[in-house]
C-alpha cells in the first residue's frame, strides 16, 4: 500500500517540492505543506528500514531526515521574512485593512506585546495554528516590529514545526508500518497540535 506514497516522496525533487510549498503557504495557507513534510518523513522511515534490512545501506532515493528538517525550517523562515517585508512596505492601505478586521487587530496587539516583553511564544504557537503563521508575519511587518525581535522567534517556530512534522511521519511509519494508516495518524497529530495552538492563542490576553 505504501508503494504509491513512496513513489511520490522518493527522489531528490521532493526537497524542492517541500521547500516551495512551505515557502508559499504563508500566502496560500491551503497548500498541503504539512502533508508533504509528513509524507516525506514516512517515506524516509520506510526506505531506510527496508534498505537496512536488505543491504544495510540507505539508497539515494530515500529522503534524508536532517535535510528535510533544515530545508523545511529555512523555507518557513524565508516565507515569514518575505511576508514581513511586504507588510512593512504595505503602508496605509494595509493598516486600514488590518483595522477593519477585529481578528487581525487583536493578533497585532498580542504580537506587539509579546515581542515588547522579549518573548515570542506566540510566534511559535502561531506556526502550528491554521493560518496563524500568515497572521503573525503580516501583523509583525504592518506594526513595524524590529526584525531582530521577530526573526529569531520565526526561526525557532519554523524549526520546531519542521522537526515535529518530520518526526510524526518518521515515527508513525516506524510504529504503525509504512501504510496510509500511519500517514493518517500522523496528520491527525499535526492537526491536533494546530487546534491546540489555536486554542492557546485565543486564551492569551491582549496587551
Automatic annotation (TrEMBL):
Cellular component annotations (GO), alphabetically ordered: plasma membrane
Swiss-Prot/TrEMBL keywords: Cell membrane, Membrane, Transmembrane, Transmembrane helix
Keyword Transmembrane helix part of the UniProt annotation: yes
Topology with respect to the bilayer: Multi-pass membrane protein
Transmembrane segments: 12-28, 35-53, 65-87, 150-172, 178-201
Boundaries of every VTT domain copy: 32-170
UniProt-listed PANTHER family: INNER MEMBRANE PROTEIN DEDA-RELATED, TRANSMEMBRANE PROTEIN
Family indicated by similarity: Belongs to the DedA family.
Name of the molecule in the record: VTT domain-containing protein
Organism: Streptomyces griseofuscus
Organism lineage string: Bacteria, Bacillati, Actinomycetota, Actinomycetes, Kitasatosporales
Amino acid at each position: 500500500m505504501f508503494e504509491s506514497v513512496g513513489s511520490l516522496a522518493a527522489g531528490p525533487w521532493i526537497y524542492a517540492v517541500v521547500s516551495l510549498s512551505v515557502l508559499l503557504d504563508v500566502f496560500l495557507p491551503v497548500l498541503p505543506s504539512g502533508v508533504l513534510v509528513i509524507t516525506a518523513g514516512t517515506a524516509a522511515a520506510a526506505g531506510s528500514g527496508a534498505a537496512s534490512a536488505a543491504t544495510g545501506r540507505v539508497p539515494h532515493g530515500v529522503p534524508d531526515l536532517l535535510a528535510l528538517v533544515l530545508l523545511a525550517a529555512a523555507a518557513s523562515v524565508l516565507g515569514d521574512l518575505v511576508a514581513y517585508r511586504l507588510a512593512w512596505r504595505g503602508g496605509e492601505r494595509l493598516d486600514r485593512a488590518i483595522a477593519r478586521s477585529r481578528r487581525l487587530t487583536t493578533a497585532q496587539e498580542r504580537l506587539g506585546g509579546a515581542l515588547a516583553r522579549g518573548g515570542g511564544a506566540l510566534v511559535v504557537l502561531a506556526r502550528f495554528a491554521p493560518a496563524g503563521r500568515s497572521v503573525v508575519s503580516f501583523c509583525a511587518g504592518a506594526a513595524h516590529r524590529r526584525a531582530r525581535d521577530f526573526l529569531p522567534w520565526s526561526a525557532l517556530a519554523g524549526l520546531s514545526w519542521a522537526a515535529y512534522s518530520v518526526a510524526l511521519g518518521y515515527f508513525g511509519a516506524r510504529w504503525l508500518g509504512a501504510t496510509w494508516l500511519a500517514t493518517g495518524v500522523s496528520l491527525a497529530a499535526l492537526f491536533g497540535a494546530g487546534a491546540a495552538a489555536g486554542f492557546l492563542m485565543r486564551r492569551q490576553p491582549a496587551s
